[in-house]
Amino acid sequence: MSSDKNSPIEKLNQILEKQQYRVVGGHSAVKICYWTKESLRADRVCYKELWYPPVESHRCMQMTPYLGCNHHCLHCWRLHSGDKSMKWKEFPFTEKLDEAEKIVDGCVEKRRELLMGFKGNLKVDKKKFDEALRPSMMTMSLTGEPTLYPRIGELVEEAERRGMITFLVTNGSLPKRLEEADPLPWQLYVSVYGSDPKTHHEIARPEIPKAWDQLNKTLELLPSLETRKVIRLTMIKGYNMKNPEGYSKMIEKAEPNFVEVKAYEWVGESQRRLPREAMPWMEDVRDFAKKISMHTGYEIRGEFEPSGVVLLTA
After folding, report:
1. Strand blocks (E) in 2-58
2. Is it the case that residue 2 has pLDDT exceeding 60?
3. Most exposed residue of 38, 103, 124, 214, measured as fewest CB within 10 angstroms of its CB?
4. Nearest in space to 296 (alpha carbons), one of 229, 237, 246
5. What was the pLDDT predicted at 1?
6. What is the pLDDT of residues 81-133, one digit of tens each?
7. Burial status of residue 126 (CB atoms within 10 A of its CB: 0-12, 13-18, 19 or more)
8. Is the pLDDT of residue 3 over 70?
9. Are 223 and 180 in contact (CB under 8 A)?
10. Backbone angles phi and psi of 290, in degrees to 5
């Protein structure tokens, strides 16, 4: 990373620090998840703990191995290159890649520092706090596109060595990285933003050519990957909550274990790109999930209103 305090990258780092991210090495970051905080102070847990055992919200380490991204999604909460008159090269974000061991150790250490603010909170159970300092899960989804870091398998391996299961959330733009990953993450999410090339391009605003084709290659690859797989449909009212038949064909192609129909949340920088009305009500998400269920045969197994998400399973 540049040592120039006025460089766009350093300015970005400063913004991330103010937002309670902690930058790790040259291109990674960690942050305390909202549901980790809620689990500690109010005993409320994320839907992932309810639906995907052995997930424990207070022991989840939310991180990214790569701060840059090859999409500029309308609904993304993060700063994109070009926002606020700041411009930087998102990929490659840096020419020098950090070792997987350094990334995982750095994230564990920085997360521990961030959690120390809960130590004196009388509402936090001491046993639970002590457990939280020892993460049992590493979720690669915080910001950016994780598969732009080419050594995903090594990250998974390092996390497993420390007793953590791994979640990976990807936009599906780099199928080769998933095909080559060894070992694979414990659970793999592919985010789908549109059911046709036009909608996908309008929502994802890819910075790479043939992004729709790459996503579909990823969907075609999924049945051959021996891990738990989830298709997440990010629903934006008035933008991509249409053509359930098209989404259903993509799901049938991918043969995931689970489908999450999840509401877009009007937070962060997305508030500059989308109106508040673009955030669906739970009723909207529920109705769309029913249509997906009807077309695919996947059954609705649960819903979690605080996160605006409905779960379907094969």
Report:
1. 22-24, 28-31
2. no
3. 38
4. 246
5. 45
6. 888 778 888 887 777 999 999 999 999 999 999 999 999 898 999 999 999 99
7. exposed
8. no
9. no
10. -65, -35
Q: Which structure tokens are listed for 262? A: 């999840």
Residue 155 has φ and ψ, to the nearest 5°, of: -60, -45
Structure tokens at 243: 């053509």
Q: Using a CB cutoff of 8 Å and minimum separation of 24, what contacts does 303-308 make?
A: 304/47, 304/50, 304/51, 306/44, 306/47, 307/46, 307/47, 307/262, 307/263, 308/262, 308/263, 308/265, 308/279, 308/280, 308/282
Q: What are phi and psi for residue 61, nearest 5 degrees? A: -100, 105
CA angle 49, 50, 54 (to 5 degrees): 45
Asked if 234 and 290 count as a contact pair (C-beta separation under 8 A), the reply is no
5 pLDDT band (50/70/90 cuts)? Answer: low
What distance separates the 2 farthest-apart alpha carbons in the chain? 55
CA-wise closest residue to 62 among 37, 86, 43: 37
Tokens coding 165: 């299961």
C-alpha 160/C-alpha 24 separation (Å) is 19
Query: Cis (ω within 30 of 0) for the bond into 183?
Result: yes
What is the pTM (predicted TM-score) of this model? 0.94
Q: Give the whole-angstrom CA distance, residue 1 versus residue 194.
A: 35
Reduced to 3 states, what is the DSSP secondary structure of residue 219? helix
Is the separation of the CB atoms in 176 and 150 below 8 Å? Answer: no
For domain 8-313, which CATH number applies: 3.30.70.330, 3.20.20.70, 3.30.465.10, 2.40.33.20? Answer: 3.20.20.70
- CA–CA dist 19, 220 (Å, integer): 37
**Would you give the DSSP letter of residue 50?**
H
Residue with structure tokens 């990010």? 234
pLDDT tens, position by position, 187-208: 999 999 999 999 999 999 999 9
